[in-house]
Design brief:
The protein has about 375 residues and is an alpha+beta fold. It is built from twelve helices and eight strands. The mean pLDDT is about 95.
Length: about 375
Amino acid sequence: MASYLADPDVEEAIEDIFNIRDTYFYMDQPTYIVEPLEEGDPRMLMKQGFNRLVEELRPLGFLPRLSKEIDRYLITVFRAPPPSPSRNNRNVILFAVTTCTIFLDGFIRSNNPLLVDILMPNTSVYVNALYFTLAILSIFGFHELGHKAVAVLRGVEASMPYFIPAPPGMGGTFGAVIVQKEPPANRDALFDLGLSGPLVGFIITVLVAVVGLRLSFVVPIEEVHSWMISYPEIRFQSIPFPILMVFLQSIIRPAQEGMVLLIHPVGFAAWVGCLVTFINLIPAWQLDGGHISRAIFGKYYHKLMSIIGIAVLFLTGYIVMAIITFFLMMRTQGDAEAPLDDVSPLSPSRKALIFVYLAIVLLTLVTLFPS
């Protein structure tokens, strides 16, 4: 009579993919010492086989985890999280509230006499506020939908975005998040999870920047000085542009000597998109950049990169964000979520995408030196 450590279907799936050398229980979890069935590079064979095993065990309600002890590959099997009820009421409510707070923020930014009476007298304040709302929602929403798309393509359950409202005057939102129900399968999947959101958000930010700069105005600086006197209630403020917006401005709205750019609220939304993308790509803790660095460097060096990332936040002026990230990192022992297969190396295609990651970081870098 056959005996099984786990569900017979689970063991059959493992036997179809690997050669099982030994089995035992560890911490109440069935554990299998395995090796590839075929000849070749064991690391690549284990990576391919394990990825297939994840796909086969998920419908059975189980997930495997791959580890390595000296020269032995170990697979432990555990119960997958149960499916969540498909209710999105909370997502819809948060989206509606956030849309309102963003619109109010856009209304405040658009409802100034300079924009209403001089620069855009034929455009309603509500229209400009709507433009701003659509721009911000697109940047944050498509960022999270980028993460969601990767989860769906890999068959992993993930929530719809949870938007976080913020008081008007602070952009109207603190962003959005999604919740993924299970760890990524391997380092490739972890890398994809980290890069997908910022990459999609960056593309949308570029489009928003083009529209925002086309709606903006280049005026003589003397005119601005006179407006400062005529409209003392308006706060004129210089903001540091990232390389991306400097480049786009040089093409769309170049400012000659003695001229200055007055940015439209949609252009400000693009600036916010650059800022958020840069922060998200900092290689620290469980930020998107933290997932990327965890996939590239592994557990130990990820903690070192997190410290470097927090230092970068300090040096670029994001003092509060640096403190919050450091505090949260200490509470979680500094590690990002480990993939199920933390043994197999990152694929060459993902290593090539590291240059895309670095390029986006440089293009969206917004330095905020404290005054």
